[in-house]
Amino acid sequence: MTEDLEWAESKSKERQSQNFVKTALELSGYKVMDYGIETHNMDIVKEIRGSYKSKTNHRIFSMPDYVVVEPETKKTELLEVKFRTQDYFNWKKTTFLFGYRNIKDYIDYWIDATIVIVMEVKPYCLCVRVSDIDWNNNFKEKMEMKNGSITEVWNFSGKYKLFNDIFPLITNKHFMKALHLSKIKLSGKEDKEKNKK
Question: Is this structure's pTM higher than 0.85?
Answer without folding.
Answer: yes
